[in-house]
Amino acid sequence: MKNLLIRTFLSTIGASSAYLVSDGIARADDWGCEVILCLSNPGGATQYAPCRPPIQRLWRELARGHGLPTCNGVGFSASRPRYEPYACGEGFRLTTRTSDRGAEASCVSTTPQTVANSECDYDQDGGPLSPRWYHLGGQRQCRRYVTRRPSVRSKPHHVDLTIDGIGTQRVWY
């Protein structure tokens, strides 16, 4: 029954997982192979019902500090589990600074952003985030690197997974 479910699963996700099939039979003899098959789904590891139990078990094991299970005959590698609780939107990068209040994370724009002209009109300290006048498109604009609060990830743990040279994908849990 398990192999039938895995074959059905493979037929639904298409050729991207064909490397895990030999003569039409999936190598899903154990939990590790099920995990690899499910993680290789471009639609997400839990898109299909047969994948939910093995992936939920994987999340529990990773949360306990264990690594990814193995699957004989399939070349894959995974990074150690990592923890990144904060995220920044596109055009921003996560930075951390330490002060007397402890470490504080923030998002800083990757390029200067246009701000109110009044920010450039008062005396500046000249630091890297200070506003400056720029000449863009024949106009004078006050610009500076903008900081924002980072968002908190609902799934802050991840591993980077590479399967048979297909590429690396980050799996969040």
UniProtKB/TrEMBL annotation:
Q: Which organism is it from?
A: Sinorhizobium fredii (strain NBRC 101917 / NGR234)
Question: Which branch of life, at top level?
Answer: Bacteria
Protein keywords: Plasmid
Q: Can you say what this protein is called?
A: Uncharacterized protein
